[in-house]
Structure formats: structure tokens, C-alpha cells
Specification:
This protein has 488 residues and is an all-alpha fold. The chain has a single domain (15-207, 223-487), classed as MFS general substrate transporter like domains (Growth Hormone, Chain: A), CATH 1.20.1250. It contains 17 helices and no strands. The chain has helices at 12-43, 48-77, 87-104, 111-143, 147-176, 180-205, 213-218, 224-233, 235-266, 268-299, 302-322, 331-367, 372-401, 403-418, 424-436, 440-468, 473-487. α3 (87-104) runs antiparallel to α4, α12 runs antiparallel to α13 and α12 (331-367) runs parallel beside α17 (473-487). The longest helix has 37 residues, at 331-367. The two termini are 18 Å apart.
Length: 488
């Protein structure tokens, strides 16, 4: 593949359009990843077998989607549209995905009919989101190879990612209790529309790297064989990609268990408002860490900062486990602990993203080829595969602990409320009574799943990067300088 020069400077319009555009797409992803199973668990009357099959469908679809990500990277890499290499896929992906999101929360067949509908729809959701996700993230490393510019882009973009996730994760839990069916449906409409509008901003506002379409058309086409060759030869990509997978598992399980934790620890009537406060801690913690990221990376190396963050995150999870056992359970304590965890997870997230993106120049340096989309696809691959692992773990914990069976009593109430048979007050009152009858060992098992799995995953990610990743700040700058000399 012919080598290409980076844009000499990144214009403000491209920079801000790209970063702001992340708001809608990550709001849509957060809505599905955080609340789709909550919607199924608390509004659909399904047997344990039906719920288990739905979870299995999600795991299978996510594994397929993870495999599909690098394939999508190849398709994008071989694209030669006049409108741009990435923009057509960004736009098509967001529109199709928004339609699937709307369908998932609108159509409500019953029993096994819902299981079949869900399986097909979730597969389509994953494939359409991949179209947008790989093209959007593939555009990032192509905008600039300058370390400072890339750090700035990742930092600003992460702030808007956090904003989109914060709005969804904070607002939705406060409106679902007692009116879950209708609340989820209208939330889906709003999220789908926001996804489209914010991604239109990216398409209209971003200026892609100048390209020679005639040369690209004559260039060797990428194949699956080429893709696997790129993965196999880039040892730093393998290390950072697996670390991204482990980190995603470690950082996301807390929020995936969140709704059940607050409902069953504090009650159905007040759990939603407490989830909102916890989400505020998530938003503040992540925003503060992202705002301080540039400053902290000037004082500490990335690996040093990652080590500090990992230790503090583990202490935070252990403190969360101790709530209600070694010291009294309180919303204040949970929120303080949550803020600390999310603050340092923000640092870890940005560090691993930068490490992963830096393997693009490492590959170009060693093999004289640049494949932005294919290598960037590994991040999405890791996230999807990590989400599949998370979904399996969450389902097992909910079923073994008996929390799912208890939640189905609440689901019956919400279904009747959606038909107008019960008021919101009647639903929340009856749901609180069901929760009071849950055995202590059930919530203990829920807590163990929420704490122990993340600790194992975070330690695994840190150990892998510590032992295998070699592209520190000095080495990356040397690689970039060498590539620049070759171009000259």
C-alpha cells in the first residue's frame, strides 16, 4: 500500500466536528449496552430458559460482531468513494443502526416470538453499528500522527463520549420505574435521532486526508489473509488489543450490574434516583480525569500513570464490596467510591486507547505499510468480545443468585402498567415489597460478581502491558521521526 502523509495541521472545524460527533454515537451505544437487558429483564415476562437463550443470542452475536469488525475494516480500507474513505460508512451505519434501535424498543411479541425477534434484531444492531464504529475510529489515526495532536483529539473526544454516556445513563433510570415500557420506547426514539444528527455533523464538518483515487484504485486490495498477517506480525497490537479487551470487561461490569445493584440494595422506588447520582459520579470522575490527562502525562509516563490508576481502582472495588458488611451501606459511601473508581478508570481508558493507536505507526515503521482502518478495528473487536464476556458473566450471576427470578415479579407489574392496568405508584409499592423478601445471600452473590470479575480483568490488563508493551513515549517519537525522514 502506498504511504500517505498526514495532514500538516488539523483544522479547527475538523477537530471539533469529529470530537463533538462522538456524543450521539456513544449515547446510542450506552443506551443499548446499559439498558437493553434491563428493558428485557424488567418489562418482558420471560421464563429463565427464554432469558438464557436471549443472553446466549447476545453472546453469539457479539462474538460474530467482533469477528466482523476487522472484515469491515478491510471493506473500508478498500473503499474509493469520492465522498471520502470513511464518511459514507459513518452515515450509512448511523442511519441503519438508529432504525434497529427504534425497532428493538417498539415491537413487543411475547414468549419465544420475542426471543426470535430479539435475536435477529440484535444481530442487525451489531452489524450496522460496526459500519459506523470502524469507520469513525478509523478516521482518528488518519487525521494526524503528531503525538500531541492525537493526545488532544483523544482527550476532547473522550469528554464528548462521556457527555453522551452521562446523559443516557443519568436520565433513563430516573424515568423508568413504574412506567418502564413507554419510558424505554421514547428514550429509544430520542437516542436514535441524536445518533443521526451528531454523525451528520462529522460527515459535514470533517476534512479527510487528501487522497489519490487513481493510485488507490490500482493498489493491492486487502484480503482476510492480509488482515491476519497484519495482526500476527504486530506484537504490540496484540498486547494492547488484549489489554483493551480485559480493561473493557473490568470497567464495564460495574455499570452493567448497576441497575440490579441499586434496585435490590436500596429499593425499586428510590433505586432510579440513586442510579442517577451514581451516573453523576461517573460523569464527574471521567470528565475530571480526561481534563487532567494531558497534565498528568507530562508528569508521569503512561505506564506509571496506568499502574497508579490500576491500584486505586482495585482499592475502590474492595471498598465497594465492604459496604454493608465492614461498614454501613449508604448512598453517600457508594457514590464517593464510585467517583474514585471512575476517575482513575478515565486515565486507564485514555492510556490504552493511545497505546493501541500508536501501534499504527509501529506497523508502518517496521513494515512500510499503513492500514489505519484494519488496525483500528482491533479496538472495536476487543470491545465487542469483551461485551460478550460481560453479558455471559452477568447472566450467570443473575440466574445463580436468583435475582432474575425476583425481577420477573417486577416485570409483570411493569407489563400491566404499560397496558394501563396499574398506576406508577402501585407498581413501585408492590416492587419494593418483592425486593424486601429477597434473601441476603442473593445480594451477596450479586455483589461478588460485580467486584471480583473486574479486579481480575484489570490486573490482567496491567500485567500484559507491563510485560509486553514497549512503545513508550520516547520510542514512539523516534518511530514518528523515522517515518517522517522516509517521507522526505
Amino acid at each position: 500500500m502506498a504511504e500517505e502523509k498526514s495532514l500538516p495541521t488539523l483544522d479547527a472545524r475538523t477537530k471539533w466536528s469529529y470530537c463533538i460527533g462522538a456524543t450521539g454515537r456513544d449515547a446510542a451505544y450506552a443506551f443499548i449496552s446499559l439498558f437493553l437487558m434491563t428493558y428485557v429483564q424488567y418489562t418482558m415476562k420471560l421464563t429463565v430458559a427464554q432469558f438464557s437463550v436471549i443472553s446466549l443470542c447476545m453472546v453469539i452475536c457479539l462474538v460474530w460482531d467482533a469477528i466482523n469488525d476487522p472484515m469491515m475494516g478491510i471493506i473500508i480500507e478498500n473503499s474509493h468513494f469520492k465522498a471520502g474513505k470513511y464518511k459514507p460508512w459513518i452515515l450509512a451505519g448511523c442511519i441503519l443502526n438508529a432504525l434497529v434501535i427504534t425497532a428493538l424498543f417498539t415491537f413487543r411479541p411475547t414468549g419465544w416470538g420475542f426471543v426470535a425477534f430479539f435475536g435477529v434484531s440484535y444481530l442487525l444492531w451489531g452489524m450496522t453499528y460496526t459500519m459506523n464504529d470502524i469507520s469513525y475510529w478509523g478516521m482518528l489515526p488518519s487525521l494526524s500522527s503528531d503525538a500531541a495532536t492525537r493526545n488532544s483529539l483523544v482527550t476532547i473526544m473522550s469528554i464528548f463520549i462521556c457527555l453522551g454516556q452521562f446523559v443516557v445513563a443519568g436520565v433513563v433510570p430516573t424515568i423508568i420505574a413504574g412506567n418502564a415500557v413507554n419510558a424505554f420506547r421514547w428514550s429509544a426514539y430520542a437516542v436514535a435521532m441524536g445518533f443521526i444528527l451528531f454523525q451528520i455533523l462529522v460527515v459535514v464538518g470533517c476534512k479527510e486526508r487528501p487522497r489519490n483515487l487513481e493510485k488507490e484504485a490500482k493498489a493491492e486490495k486487502l484480503t482476510l489473509g492480509t488482515m491476519f498477517r497484519i495482526f500476527k506480525r504486530n506484537d504490540q497490537l496484540i498486547a494492547s488489543g488484549v489489554a483493551e479487551l480485559l480493561f473493557h470487561v473490568g470497567s464495564s461490569l460495574l455499570t452493567m450490574f448497576g441497575a440490579n445493584f441499586f434496585f435490590f440494595e436500596f429499593g425499586y422506588s428510590t433505586g432510579g434516583s440513586l442510579i442517577f447520582l451514581f451516573t453523576v459520579m461517573y460523569g464527574l470522575g471521567t470528565l475530571f480525569s480526561q481534563a487532567l490527562y494531558d497534565t498528568m502525562t507530562k508528569k508521569f509516563s503512561r505506564m506509571k500513570l496506568l499502574s497508579i490508576a490500576t491500584v486505586v481502582e482495585i482499592i475502590g472495588y474492595l471498598a465497594l464490596m465492604a459496604c454493608g458488611y465492614l461498614f454501613p451501606m449508604s448512598a453517600v459511601a457508594v457514590n464517593i467510591i464510585g467517583f474514585v473508581i471512575f476517575f482513575f478508570q478515565g486515565f486507564s481508558n485514555l492510556i490504552i486507547i493511545v497505546m493501541l493507536n500508536n501501534t499504527i505507526e509501529y506497523d508502518e515503521y517496521r513494515f512500510h505499510e499503513r492500514h489505519d482502518s484494519v488496525i483500528a478495528a482491533i479496538r472495536s473487536f476487543a470491545v465487542k468480545l469483551g461485551t460478550a464476556l460481560e453479558q455471559g458473566l452477568v447472566t450467570v450471576v443473575l440466574i445463580i443468585s436468583g435475582i432474575y427470578t425476583a425481577s420477573q415479579q417486577i416485570s409483570s407489574l411493569e407489563t400491566d402498567a404499560g397496558k394501563g392496568l396499574l398506576t406508577s405508584e402501585q407498581v413501585t409499592s408492590a416492587a419494593d415489597e418483592f425486593i424486601r423478601n429477597v434473601e441476603p445471600y442473593q445480594t451477596l452473590l450479586l455483589r461478588l460478581g460485580m467486584v471480583l470479575f473486574p479486579i481480575i480483568a484489570l490486573v490482567g490488563a496491567w500485567l500484559l502491558l507491563k510485560k509486553k508493551y514497549r512503545i513508550d513515549e520516547a520510542e514512539y517519537q523516534r518511530i514518528v521521526d523515522e517515518i517522517a525522514e522516509r517521507h522526505e
